[in-house]
Amino acid sequence: MSKFRLGWIAPAVVAALLAAGCGGASHPTTSAGASSPAAVSPSAVATKAASSGFTGIIVASFPTSNSVELDAVDPATGRTKATRTFDGGSATIAAWQIDPWFTWASDFNKSLTKLAATGSGPNGTTSAGYVDTSGNYVPLTAAQSSGFSSLPDKQAVGFAQDGDLWYQVTNHVTQFGHVNPAAGPSSDRLGSYSEDSGNAQHEYMTLAGPEAAGAGNYHIFLPGGLEVDQAVSPGYQIAGWGRVTDSTPITPVKGDADNTDLWMVAAVGPRRFLTSDNDRGFLFLNTIEHGYVRTKSLLPVNSDLSFTSVAVSPDRHAVALITNDGRLWIVPLTGGQPQQLTGFSVNTSGFGGLLEWTAP
């Protein structure tokens, strides 16, 4: 499994989380590379689009291979309150329908007004930028000059929690950089990570940095600085972001299921995360306790609620999920039965799934 060369995370913060959650598992030090997104609080993650008024359960559809439609759904009724459309035009959007749903959120900025995209330049060169709801492409990295150039091609990956747009350098699978959309090319910074994908369009932004889409099924980054990885034997390896190694101790699991053949689904908080089976027929809430991970089943037995995507509520008390037959449900994380939002109807034109759940 690939590991990041991350920026520095305060040892005291990580040590406190580990001591509180899993009995002080080790967190080996790795070498620092480019600056990385700083640790963020759950509230910062939950209020992503509040400032724009485009809030609720955000559902993504893909009318074409190079466009995305977002619907803001009322979490009380299931009815669509507002819609936004992003068309890549001559640029190539970063969001791919075939990638896991959890990769799509970072393709958009915090206010859900910009979609990361890669634009074409002279002589086949590329730049990283974004498209807006009017279909305009705005390049954020320096334009290429004609002929041979020392400026590398850059392909957009997505937006970090601090608002910077991250990109991957073409033909350099371990070289990434980021740029501040407000400052433009003057803020462009290059760096290296030991993450390996080869295609920026199949990357997404985790809380810790860029990640290959497929790897998100096997490890997860929690707000506050902890990384949780699946272990070979039942249990999880837990350390600071990018610091899980083969020698990291295994934290055992207690409760309704071990982690055998389970996939990561979503972060809930600094010490809580969701997992599911391969068929998405079961959903488990996992809590890092003192020396073990406690797991609790959230779906009733034989509920027939196999799902395609989920989104955690801003208050971290519930999770929305869309089932294989297109129904939208709210599942309490604190106990209780799932409730269907009967006002919801699936957009059948390139339907994707849930993007996130934002606060009003």
What's the short version?
With 360 residues, the chain is mainly β. The protein has two domains: 54-214, no CATH class; 217-358. The protein has helices at residues 11-22, 42-46, and strands at 56-61, 67-73, 80-87, 92-93, 114-120, 126-132, 137-139, 154-159, 165-169, 175-179, 189-192, 203-205, 210-212, 219-221, 226-230, 236-240, 250-251, 253-255, 262-269, 272-277, 283-288, 293-297, 307-312, 318-323, 328-332, 339-340, 351-358.
How does this structure look, described?
By secondary structure, the protein is mainly β. It folds into 2 domains: 54-214, no CATH class; 217-358. It has helices at 11-22, 42-46; strands at 56-61, 67-73, 80-87, 92-93, 114-120, 126-132, 137-139, 154-159, 165-169, 175-179, 189-192, 203-205, 210-212, 219-221, 226-230, 236-240, 250-251, 253-255, 262-269, 272-277, 283-288, 293-297, 307-312, 318-323, 328-332, 339-340, 351-358. A hairpin with a 6-residue loop joins strand 25 and strand 26. The longest helix has 12 residues, at 11-22. The chain starts with 10 loop residues before the first helix and ends with a strand.
Present the secondary structure layout.
Blueprint: H1 11-22, H2 42-46, E1 56-61, E2 67-73, E3 80-87, E4 92-93, E5 114-120, E6 126-132, E7 137-139, E8 154-159, E9 165-169, E10 175-179, E11 189-192, E12 203-205, E13 210-212, E14 219-221, E15 226-230, E16 236-240, E17 250-251, E18 253-255, E19 262-269, E20 272-277, E21 283-288, E22 293-297, E23 307-312, E24 318-323, E25 328-332, E26 339-340, E27 351-358
**How does the major sheet shape up?**
5 strands, mixed
Low-confidence stretches: 1-14, 22-34, 38-47
Give Rg in angstroms. Answer: 20 Å
The order of strands across the largest sheet is 18-22-21-20-19
What is the H/E order? HHEEEEEEEEEEEEEEEEEEEEEEEEEEE
Helix content: under 10%
> Count of helices?
2
| Distance from first to last alpha carbon | 38 Å
What percent strand? 35-45%
User: What's the rounded overall pLDDT mean?
Assistant: 82
Principal-axes shape call: globular
Q: Give the number of domains.
A: 2
Number of strands: 27
Label the structural class.
mainly beta
